[in-house]
Amino acid sequence: MTIERENIFDFAQAVWTTVLGAELHEASSGIHQKHVLRGAVQITGAWEGSVTIECSESFAKWAAARMFEADEATMDEVHDALGELTNMVGGNLKALLPGPNRLSIPFVHDTLKRDEDGNVDGKLMLACGGEPIVVTVRARPRADGAHDAKEGSSP
Amino acid sequence: MKILVVDDSKAMRMIVTRTLRQAGFDNYTVQEACNGVEALKAIHDAAPDLILCDWNMPEMSGIELLANIRAEQREIKFGFVTSEGTDEMRAQALESGALFLITKPFTPDAFRIALRSVIS
């Protein structure tokens, strides 16, 4: 299934505005840095896959400082903040996916930018204050090669 | 009056506490716990009047914490503050004895509306 760009944008914008007091805009390009911070939540159940948010470390530090109302955040706080932003966007997007589903605890890692396995059901390139943000909804490949919801699942 | 904020995210615990203040609930003592297990310890030490709790946490989830509190026959007011707000979760929350479910991200208004009838 495909997640509409408008849905991803609306949920991300609501989180950014409410939590960070900042606006998001759609962007024409993604992240140029080789290293990114990636927040991820896994969704398991009738639909299996992940919602990820990728951004630069500098943006994540800025966001964490906003959330903690601090001049500077520690790296633990940076990971906590990006994890919670991912949890909010992922939790809201989960409601659009075929259920019932479970949402994992968010996790964050510093990683090389790369494409992971799985079918991209929704991807949006955004920018906040000139900093690129990428939100991706990705279904986990199934053994039979399909990517969509399991047959026979109830909403 | 004591309010216990339970969330595995330190950032979110701070935001919930800040939002309580912004919503006008600034004369309350706020305690924090990072999961259901820690919350149970805090409850045993000094029972709060109200618990604002995340749903999805390691060690013990919010719904498991609520079940434990009710199993101990404690009548502590309980509300969820969570990123997921499906109809099924709202129904499960209410059936389990929660008074409300606030979805993240939230505004001070959402807190005022949910807590007005709970905190007199």
What key phrases describe this protein's structure?
heterodimer; A: 155 residues; alpha+beta; 7 strands; disordered C terminus; B: 120 residues; alpha/beta; five-stranded parallel sheet; 5 helices; 5 strands; 20% strand; globular
Task: Describe how the helices and strands are arranged.
The complex is a heterodimer of chains A (155) and B (120).
Chain A: H1 5-20, E1 25-26, E2 35-45, E3 49-55, H2 57-68, H3 75-94, E4 101-103, E5 107-112, E6 119-128, E7 131-139
Chain B: E1 2-6, H1 10-22, E2 29-33, H2 36-45, E3 50-53, H3 62-71, E4 77-82, H4 87-95, E5 100-103, H5 108-116
Parallel strand pairs in B: 1-2, 1-3, 3-4, 4-5
Summarize it:
With 155 residues, chain A is of the alpha+beta class. Chain A is built from 3 helices and 7 strands.
- Total number of beta strands of chain B: 5
The portion of residues assigned to helices of chain B is 40-55%
What percentage of amino acids of chain B are in beta strands?
15-25%
Biggest interface, chains and residues, is: A-B, 26 and 22 residues
Number of helices of chain A: 3
- Cα shape of chain A: globular
Mean pLDDT of chain B: 95
* Regions with little confidence, pLDDT below 50 for 5+ residues of chain A: 148-155
What is the radius of gyration of chain A? 15 Å
Helix content of chain A: 25-40%
Question: Rg of chain B to the nearest angstrom?
Answer: 13 Å
For the biggest β-sheet of chain B, the strand order reads 2-1-3-4-5
The class by helix and strand makeup of chain A works out as alpha+beta
Structure description:
The complex is a heterodimer of chains A (155) and B (120). With 155 residues, chain A is of the alpha+beta class. Chain A is built from three helices and seven strands, in the order αβββααββββ. In chain A, strands 1, 2, 3, 4, 5, 6 and 7 form a seven-stranded antiparallel beta sheet that branches. The radius of gyration of chain A is 15 Å and the shape is globular. Chain B has a five-stranded parallel beta sheet with strand order 2-1-3-4-5, with helices on both faces. Chain B is α/β, with parallel strands linked by helices and 120 residues long. The chains are: A alpha+beta (155), B alpha/beta (120). At the A-B interface, α1, α2 and α3 of A face α1 of B.
